[in-house]
Specification:
Layout lengths: L1 H12 L16 H6 L2 H11 L9 H15 L9 H15 L10
Length: about 110
């Protein structure tokens, strides 16, 4: 029994062959959301441009889209309706994005 437990612990601690295999995009087209809306792009760049290159990569956009969905899905049903989308966008713009092209409020 102790040998079986030791083998299970070793197997549980074994790393995956490639750490990159663990990363999968939830929505590889998330970048399109931000490219089509300059206000949401400002928000995404402010909070999700992890390498600070002023460019939103597909991975950064995926993270931003996940957060946008958390904000937007008001009834927590896993879907974002057009009304929820509009409300979330209005909230983000009012809270974090100003009127000018680089005016981002904190």
């Amino acid at each position: 029994m102790p040998l079986l437990l030791a083998l299970l612990l070793i197997q549980a601690q074994a790393p995956t062959a490639d750490p990159a295999d663990d990363w999968q995009l939830v929505n590889p087209k998330a970048i399109e959301l931000f490219e089509s809306d300059s206000k949401l792009m400002q928000w995404a760049l402010q909070f999700f441009d992890s390498d600070h290159d002023h460019y939103l990569s597909v991975f950064e956009a995926d993270n931003a889209a996940r957060q946008f969905k958390r904000i937007a899905d008001a009834d927590s049903d896993g879907r974002v309706t057009p009304s929820e989308f509009r409300s979330a966008r209005e909230f983000i713009v009012a809270r974090w994005v100003g009127d000018g092209p680089h005016d981002i409020r904190r």
